[in-house]
Amino acid sequence: MQSKAKTVAQYLHELPEDRRQAIQAVREVVLKNLNKGFEEGMQYGMIGYYVPHSVYPDGYHCDTSKPLPFASIASQKNHMAVYLMCVYGHPENEKWFRQEWDKTGKKLDMGKSCVRFKKLDNLALDAIGGVIKRVRVKDFIDYYESAIKRKPAKPKTRAKRTSKK
User: What is the pTM of this model?
Assistant: First the structure.
């Protein structure tokens, strides 16, 4: 459920009160732990945290006009979610995150990068803040670039044989 809000303030204002409080609480944790170089704004209809073009001019490979996504917070139809691109495809960060979450005794409802929740009490905010703080911009860019370069190359085509007459 993408919002058409142009600013974070507008996005928050459009939410029902209970969801606004939960999203704002997660936002405060992210902002408190966000390393220098990342920025906050609206991205893909959600509150986004990203590497701006001024730091990483190449942008996101799927749409280079967009800055490189790092994390997002969203109110979806049936739940709220925190998207952690710093965990997606990064075994070391994912392992650390899951271990920290497990220490809280709370149930983790997680996809590849998406941590889903219905109430703020369901979240391990220290684990979310910790994984955000753990990743510096340079390290995130380096890992992102290494993951993009690992994509398999297209198979080479064989030169057509010409028959001798």
Answer: 0.84
